[in-house]
Design a protein that fits this description.
single chain, alpha/beta, Rossmann fold, 4-stranded parallel β-sheet, globular
Length: 292
């Protein structure tokens, strides 16, 4: 009798076992959580407020990945640090998913990349998740892999995927009404994080605080930005939470420009706890800053 009870408990625990998902960034983790629902546990290596290009590889991360069933990578060479974590985990059963596999990249270099160009990615700009259409593509990729790993709950993943896409569709309709006047607006960004976001929402980056990606601004570059701001009457500088405000503050003191903080990832700032909220936060922030 006790054997039958014990066997029943083991089977019950087995049936309730969840897929452990580790992602490089909070955006992928949040999308996976929405698709996997009650069948997954998710965590992100990088914090939302952290620069995803540079993550210190810690033994604790390797332990987390050792316990994982699937690892979601950004790909396009943004999170190369994840490869060291994955190797160090010695998890031979780990499924590694490149979430960029169905993304059409922007800004693929047309000439050989070298160090003088800064942090240029040979396979294109890797910040693709900031376009809501690419968010849907990520969700489809995650749903497919979860279904392959756990076909018993394939219907749940399909329903959750449909719910996710419908939520984005609804927001896109709302955004097109509320924020239509953002189209054609020009601004300066700190880093070249936003080409996918700009393409979808019709914004235009006229310059960057960094003269090249990952390169600190020089006095000459800052003087160029002052002339640009004054000559083209640029209203806004937008920046991620992990950059120093020294250069933007200098430009504020020299011009009439305003600095706003955007969220490049889920949980980068207060009010960005989901992928949908993160995109909406950025639109509201920009719209409020541009509106007199």
């Amino acid at each position: 009798m006790y054997t039958r009870i014990l066997l029943g408990l083991v089977l019950s625990i087995s049936l309730e076992a969840k897929i452990n998902v580790v992602a490089s960034i909070t955006d992928l983790a949040n999308i996976a959580n929405q698709i996997g629902g009650k069948h997954v546990n998710t965590l992100s290596i990088a914090r939302g407020s952290q620069d995803p290009h540079f993550v210190e590889v810690l033994p604790s991360y390797m332990i987390k990945v050792k316990r994982a069933d699937v690892y979601l990578m950004v790909g396009m060479e943004l999170d190369q640090w994840a490869e060291q974590i994955i190797d160090g985990s010695r998890n031979s059963d780990l499924r590694i998913v490149d979430c960029s596999e169905n993304i059409i990249p922007l800004e693929i270099p047309t000439r050989k990349v070298d160090a003088s160009m800064g942090d240029i990615h040979p396979n294109g700009n890797p910040h693709y998740w900031l376009d809501p259409e690419n968010g849907k593509a990520i969700a489809r990729t995650v749903a497919r892999h979860l279904t392959e790993m756990d076909p018993e709950h394939s219907q749940d993943y399909a329903v959750n995927l449909r719910t996710f896409i419908e939520s984005i569709d609804k927001l896109q309709n709302e955004w097109s009404v509320k924020f239509s006047d953002l189209k054609g607006k020009t601004l300066i960004y700190y880093h070249n994080t936003w080409p996918y976001f700009n393409r979808y929402f019709g914004l235009k980056a006229v310059a960057f605080i960094e003269p090249n990606p990952g390169i600190m601004p020089t006095p000459t570059h800052l003087e160029h930005l002052i002339q640009l701001i004054q000559g083209q009457k640029i209203q806004l500088i937008a920046m991620e939470p992990y950059f120093s405000s020294k250069a933007p503050d200098f430009l504020v003191n020299k011009t009439d420009v305003t600095v706003v903080g955007l969220a490049q990832s889920v949980d980068a700032r207060k009010g960005t706890e989901t992928y949908q909220k993160m995109l909406t936060y950025n639109l509201k922030t920009l719209h409020g800053a541009f509106t007199p």
